[in-house]
Amino acid sequence: MKKLTLFLILCVYSINMFSQNITNTIGTSGSFIIKDGANTFLTLDQLNGYLTLNSGVIFFGADRFIHKYGLSNTFMGLNSGNFSMTGGYNTGLGSFTLNSNSMGYYNSALGYNSLYNNTTGYQNTAIGFKALTLNTTGIENTATGWASLYSNTSGNYNTAAGSASLFFNTTGYQNTSVGFKSLYYNTSGYNNTATGYASLSSNSTGYENTANGFGSLFWNSEGIRNTAVGFQALFLNTLGESNTSIGYQSLGSNTLGNDNTAVGYQSLNYNSIGDYNTASGSGSLYNNTTGYYNTASGFYSLHNNTTGEYNTAIGISSGSLITTGNNNTTIGSFAQVPDETADNQVRIGDESITYAGVQVAWTITSDKRWKSDIKNSALGLNFINKLNPVSYTRINDEKKRIEFGLIAQEVEDVLKESHIENAGMLTIDDIGRYELRYNDLLAPMIKAIQELKKEKDVEIAELKTANDELKSTTFELKERLSKFEQMQNMLVVEIEKLKINNNENTKVSLGE
């Protein structure tokens, strides 16, 4: 019994001797050290309060919490990192960061589940909740923001800044995404740059696109090499390629159109499938839908064109009334062609200009190969004689200079009298104003001159005949006069003889 009592006393003494409560007050110098026979695990400097973890792991319950397993790795957070990796120089801050890492190195993960599935990927930076969560082998990616580059697995060299930016990217590479949900649906597209809320959000496989601005290239899925700068620029584009859009809602409705350039507020706004259009200026080619090869430069230029093709307009509101006409050219502010649906019209300047000049005379095409149904002109002297030349001053001429010309309505009346319909020299625009092409008067004037010459040739021939007859009569008279003069001379001689002979019986002979 005594031996048993002694054993129990020794056990209690041993427990009291080896058990310590570290919450008790300790000395003011020296260090509190936890170690085994060979290794120091933890040191608490009693002088400055520094706590040094030399080796080992700090757990939170059953979960690892702080450790530096491997070569120059640092992990802090529930189950951050693991105890089987061989990769080094990694930093994980946040629960489950770099949880699956094996050989990956130089990775930095900050935020819950960031770089969670990374195995061999290296030089990645993930900042934010679930940033680069599914990345396994992707390298040199940078993700900043909630779930940015979340689905990336093997894509490389991507940069995502903003919540859910490049969210669905898996294998796409060299993409740059800045803004909430920018390049959100991108999966394998590459070399894309998206800056702004939801820019290039729907892009999946499209590549080499640049979007800058809220919703720019929003619906683009497979379109390539597009550039959109501005609020909702190229907003509806899906498959269109090589388009350039700069300005609020420029090319906003484009879906399949290719190689279009739009610069300015709502320029080419409604274009859907039109190709090769160039619009520069707010509202230029605004209503164009399927028209192609159009060029508009200037505010509101070619604004109402819808399906017209090969039109060129330069100047404020130039050609803005054209709708479906093709191959029209308008140069100058507010310049408009006469017919908004007609083709092949040219207008230089608006109705307020008072002078137009060139250094040399205009050269007009007149090759026979450009013409058909060629006939002799029906207009000539009679037509010209009926025209009424007038002098006038233009209402818009501040200098009130006197000009000379014809009144188009009067010319129309004369043409009708001559039974000429659909004459090209007369044009009536869409609001009923008349225009006259003076060049077309040249042929009737030439015909009039020819007719005058013909009339004069007849008169001259008649005069020549009369003159010849007069010459013949004059010649006969001259001959008779000559004979008369001869007889007169003979008479004078005979008279002189009589005078000499003074013979009254002498006969006087004047010849036969």
How far the N terminus sits from the C terminus, by CA atoms, comes to: 217 Å
Structure class: alpha/beta
- The number of helical runs is 4
Question: In terms of per-residue confidence, which ranges show pLDDT below 50 for 5 or more consecutive residues?
Answer: 1-21
User: Mean pLDDT, rounded to whole units?
Assistant: 90
Give the overall shape: rod-shaped
Estimate the strand proportion: 15-25%
The biggest sheet amounts to: 19 strands, mixed
Count every beta strand, where a strand is a DSSP E run of 2 or more residues: 26
One letter per element, helices H and strands E, the order comes to HEEEEEEEEEEEEEEEEEEEEEEHEEHEEH
Measured as a percent range, the helix fraction is 10-25%
What is the gyration radius calculated from CA atoms? 53 Å
